[in-house]
Amino acid sequence: MVYMVSTGNLPPSCKSTLSAQLSGQSTGLSVPADNVNFLRFAAQFRAVHRGAFFTEMRTTSVRRLLPEAWGFFCPVHTPDGAPCGLLNHLAEPVEVN
């Protein structure tokens, strides 16, 4: 776990088992936190990315906010451009335990 968080890559011993569960993605699993200001720093810990597999898909169904996600994901806080709808943020009242 320490190796994965510090490098963003799966350890060689876990690549075969976890890579299949992560749709073949074995790199880019962690992102260093930007310390531009406190609000940006805090917002990065509420971010949820669907994975690199979905960025190549040409369908828009993965980018839609489904009705069962309302109240859990913020419908406004998503970037413009390629990651639109793939990089979401948790809504304000959501707490992860």
TrEMBL record:
Gene Ontology cellular-component annotations: DNA-directed RNA polymerase complex
Superkingdom assignment: Eukaryota
Biological process per Gene Ontology, one example term: DNA-templated transcription
Record keywords, A-Z: DNA-directed RNA polymerase, Nucleotidyltransferase, Transcription, Transferase
Broad EC category: transferase
One term of GO molecular function: DNA binding
Enzyme Commission number(s) from the entry: 2.7.7.6
This protein's record includes keyword Glycosyltransferase: no
SUPFAM superfamilies: beta and beta-prime subunits of DNA dependent RNA-polymerase (SSF64484)
One Pfam family named in its UniProt record: RNA_pol_Rpb2_3
PANTHER family: DNA-DIRECTED RNA POLYMERASE I SUBUNIT 2
Family indicated by similarity: Belongs to the RNA polymerase beta chain family.
Annotated protein name in UniProt: DNA-directed RNA polymerase
Protein species of origin: Schistosoma mattheei
